[in-house]
Amino acid sequence: MHEYSLVMSLIERVKEEALGHRARAVHRVRIKVGELAGVEPELLAYAFEIAREGSVCDKAELDVEFVPAQWACSACARPIDRGKALQCEECGQPGKLRAGGEITFESMDLEVDDV
Q1: For 78, left (φ over 0), alpha (ψ -120 to 50), or beta?
Q2: Domain map of the chain by residue range?
Q3: How far is CA 54 from CA 33, 51, 74, 98, in A?
Q4: If I label 104, which of 5, 7, 86, 98 is the partner at 20 to 30 A Cα–Cα?
Q5: Domain 2-69+101-112, what architecture?
């Protein structure tokens, strides 16, 4: 399950950021997962539950935002409707994926000492 390796990389990134901000705790981690990213959001969340134990994310919640696939013409940028051929109806050029292929670390909520 490659979701586990993705979660391990995510936790390592969160750890680096938390150390850089001298955080005492991480309360929430937000990511975006595209429909065509090849990741099952449920398996990712399950892997996070397992991998977070004993880590900086031990008490953190994981928020996963699902991003639907969006296509557009590679030449004129006209949107291509879902379920249609991946070719522009106006100029005939092939479609290009505009959203839905990503796995993005968006943000995290940290607990830090008063400065």
Answers
A1: beta
A2: 2-69+101-112
A3: 25, 8, 46, 37
A4: 86
A5: 2-Layer Sandwich (3.30)
